[in-house]
Specification:
InterPro entries: PsdUridine_synth_cat_dom_sf, PsdUridine_synth_TruA, PsdUridine_synth_TruA_a/b_dom, PsdUridine_synth_TruA_C, TruA/RsuA/RluB/E/F_N. This protein folds into two domains: 2-95, 2-Layer Sandwich (Alpha-Beta Plaits), CATH 3.30.70.580; 108-245, 2-Layer Sandwich (Alpha-Beta Plaits), CATH 3.30.70.660. The protein contains five helices and ten strands; from the N terminus they run βαββαβββαβββααβ. It has helices spanning 27-38, 76-81, 138-148, 197-209, 217-224, and strands spanning 2-10, 47-48, 57-67, 88-95, 108-117, 130-132, 150-153, 168-180, 183-190, 239-245.
């Protein structure tokens, strides 16, 4: 048996998230279906670095699986892509030690949230950006971001419907920058993220950028640990899991 690590990109628009769900189209189901075809109907379970929600995209999601097939490693991406739908693309495959685990060995993850910042929406970018009609104060947003960087109990930035007890995480980098005249990108790198944490941080930074919340409030919100004190969860379509580092 060979343990194989794959890096995969997907457009999350038409998926009910990453994880297998009964009677629903998910990324994990499509990949496992492709692997089953390659393995003559045998179930091959994949393990990913983590889940993504419905509508969330990935450029650098990572998963591993074990296979008895004697396929040269460089041919695995082409073989899988020939069986996958057009909204999933395996970018890379490599052999890894038996001890490797796509979820438990993660050192850090990078997410990017893309905002369309102009008065009118763009129908052709609506699946990959969140539209913000009013101008944003990027300086204030970056000031607020400074308070989030570091190791904290991020209960305030975690969706209520989670069973996770330990909500301490480390954010290594958080910045807001304009990429194009009408696009702004929030980039966050951390040791790991709580359920909907990046989208709640984004929603809170947006309120700061709209001058609906002072940057100084962020430290108070984190210290208080109250989800209700933070802002609304930003929509999923602007979010992309960009990179997973081991």
């Amino acid at each position: 048996m060979t343990k194989i690590k794959c890096t995969v990109a997907y457009d999350g628009s038409q998926f009910h998230g990453y994880q297998v769900q009964p009677q629903k189209r998910t990324v994990q189901r499509e990949i496992q279906n492709a692997l089953a075809r390659m393995h003559h109907g045998s179930t091959i379970k994949i393990v990913a670095s983590g889940r993504t929600d419905a509508g969330v995209h990935a450029y650098g999601q990572v998963f591993h699986f074990e296979s008895p097939l004697k396929i040269p490693l460089e041919r695995w991406p082409r073989a899988l892509n020939s069986l996958l739908p057009g909204d999933i693309y395996v970018r890379h495959a490599e052999a890894v030690p038996e001890t490797f685990h796509a979820r438990y060995d993660v050192k850090q993850k990078e997410y990017r949230y893309r905002l369309l910042t102009r008065p009118e929406p763009d129908l052709f970018r609506r699946a990959y950006t969140a539209h913000v009609a009013q101008p944003l104060d990027l300086e204030a947003m970056n000031q607020a971001a400074e308070a989030i960087i570091g190791t904290h109990d991020f209960s305030c930035f975690c969706a209520a419907n989670t069973d996770v007890k330990d909500k301490v995480r480390t954010v290594f980098h958080l910045s807001v920058s304009r990429e194009k005249d009408d696009e702004t990108v929030i980039r966050v790198v951390g040791s790991g993220f709580l359920y909907q944490m990046v989208r709640i941080i984004t929603g809170t930074l947006l309120d700061v950028g709209k001058h609906q919340m002072a940057p100084e409030r962020i430290a108070e919100i984190i210290a208080g640990g109250d989800r209700q004190a933070a802002s609304a969860t930003a929509p999923p379509q602007g979010l992309t899991l960009w990179k997973v580092t081991y």
